[in-house]
Design brief:
The chain contains 11 helices and 21 strands. The chain is an alpha/beta fold and 389 residues long. It has 2 domains: 81 residues, Urease, subunit C, domain 1 (Roll); 289 residues, Metal-dependent hydrolases (TIM Barrel).
Length: 389
């Protein structure tokens, strides 16, 4: 495969504009372009170079899951994701028994201790067990625990301090845990929660900064109690995750979120399961059987259980519904916005000098042709390879 070290005269997607220019990298990071353009590619205007996608909330893909607790499982996920433009991800846990969660987190620590191919594992998303039994979603209600700092510290130690974000129900004894999370630079995300709006405002003042899969598995909006959904729409302090597969959330609900939130606040996630990229059939999520049919993953009782969504498809869906959003605004939803939510925007999320050289080549319909992590190719479409590399 032809080696290359940059682009010249190519359409580049920046956080606030799209323009034609040069892009270079060395030692895994973006750098100033050299005068010599030897080893540079020039792509036609129907191609875009955008920052690599960050999936802050993903359970599995390609037949394996974070809760499998093996290096091979994470390797498989990491190698599967670049085909949709994902260059970084959080391995997301489920509400299972403590030993299973600890095993999965220890595995994250072990995986991160050595180099691997594919998308970069930037950390863990602890989704449960500190959630509400009133909104378990696809989580196992029998394994739910009230918020507890000591238990969380056990998880934190097992992960090697790799937990980047925690989904929790603030109303379930969450005040002390919130204080601990914010004191240690960990993103606190309200989710799987029945929290009333008044109490949630207290939590926001204490440092809650994110909403896990907005609309899903949380107290909804009512005219006398706006709940989590209403607070999410109103409060600019909150980043809002969104599963834009048109299954979890209706088109109108997606329009409403983009209309109400300021630009920079919406984060597209996959929340995908091991069945992503595979044929319809029976799979597993958090120790529970999941059937995937017609693009939807469901438990045996019909509850939607994660997704099979890819982030480039989420972008395409959102593009048709996000009124007033430019191409840059949309790409930020899978790059700079999650980087900021996780406190990692110094190194990730945009095509800026000094940041990790993670990028994707795609067209205006968000079809992915090339994905690079640290300047190294981790996915390439065969036709693109034959013509340009």
């Amino acid at each position: 495969m032809k080696d290359f070290r940059g682009f010249t005269g190519t359409t580049l997607v920046y956080p606030d504009h799209v323009g034609t220019g040069d892009l270079s990298w060395e030692n895994g990071c973006f750098c100033l372009s050299s005068d010599s353009k030897d080893g540079y590619l020039t792509l036609p205007p129907d191609f875009l170079v955008a920052p690599g996608f960050i999936d802050e909330h993903i359970h599995g893909a390609g037949g394996t899951d974070t809760m499998d607790g093996t290096i091979a499982a994470l390797e498989n996920i990491a190698k599967s994701l670049p085909q949709e433009g994902v260059t970084s991800f959080n391995a997301t846990t489920m509400t299972m028994d403590e030993n299973s969660i600890i095993k999965a987190l220890r595995n994250v620590k072990a995986y991160r201790a050595a180099p691997h191919e594919g998308a970069r594992l930037i950390g863990a998303h602890l989704e449960g067990p500190f959630i509400s039994p009133k909104h378990p979603g696809a989580q196992d209600p029998s394994k739910i625990l009230p918020c507890d700092v000591q238990t969380f510290q056990t998880f934190e130690k097992a992960s090697g301090d790799a937990i980047r974000i925690v989904t929790f129900a603030y109303e379930e004894n969450g005040k002390e845990l919130l204080s601990y999370l914010r004191g240690h630079g960990i993103t606190a995300s309200i989710g799987h929660s029945d929290c009333l709006s008044g109490l949630l405002k207290e939590g926001l003042d204490g440092g809650i900064s994110s909403v896990t899969h907005t609309y899903n598995a949380q107290r909804g909006f009512a005219h006398r109690e706006v709940g989590i959904v209403g607070t999410a729409l109103l409060d600019d302090r909150l980043h809002c995750e969104l599963i834009a597969d048109l299954k979890h959330v209706s088109p109108d609900a997606i329009r409403l979120l983009f209309k109400c939130k300021k630009k920079g606040s919406v984060i597209l996630i996959s929340d995908s399961t091991e069945g992503k990229f595979l044929a319809p059939g029976e799979y597993e999520l958090g120790g529970q059987k999941v059937e995937i049919f017609d693009g939807v993953a469901r438990l045996e009782d019909g509850t939607i259980a994660g997704s099979v969504l890819s982030l480039n498809k989420a972008l395409a869906n959102a593009a048709a519904l996000a009124e007033g959003y430019s191409l840059s605004d949309l790409i930020n939803c899978v790059s700079l916005n999650p980087a900021k939510n996780l406190g990692l925007d110094k190194d990730y999320g945009s095509l800026e000098q000094g940041k990790k050289a993670d990028f994707v080549v795609m067209d205006y319909e968000f079809r992915v042709f090339l994905t690079c992590v640290g300047g190294h190719i981790v996915f390439v479409d065969p036709k693109f390879k034959a013509k340009y590399l």
